[in-house]
Structure to design on (87 residues):
């Protein structure tokens, strides 16, 4: 992906905040296609639990980026998971 800015994916904020924000990025280089999903939860929810899970059943993703207490429930196999989390 050729992009020099910042990706920001945050859900709503206020008295009743929305769910985690998501950004889907698809990059094509020649015949290769790379699909990434970025999830950001603005540090909402409990630190050691998956309070606001994002369900993912897309088998075409190459990587998932979890930021700021974001968490995901994977229903299919994903190639790579990148983020600040413990397994």
């Amino acid at each position: 992906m050729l992009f020099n800015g910042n990706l920001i994916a945050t859900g709503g904020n206020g008295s009743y905040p929305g769910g985690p924000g998501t950004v889907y990025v698809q990059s094509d280089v020649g015949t290769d296609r790379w699909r990434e999903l970025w999830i950001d939860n603005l540090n909402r929810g409990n630190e050691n639990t998956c309070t606001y899970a994002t369900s993912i059943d897309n088998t075409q993703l190459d990587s998932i980026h979890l930021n700021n207490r974001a968490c995901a429930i994977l229903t299919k196999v994903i190639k790579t998971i990148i983020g600040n989390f413990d397994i």
Q: What stands out?
A: The chain has a mean pLDDT of 77. The beta strands are 21-29, 32-40, 53-56, 63-67, 71-74, 80-83. The longest strand covers residues 21-29.
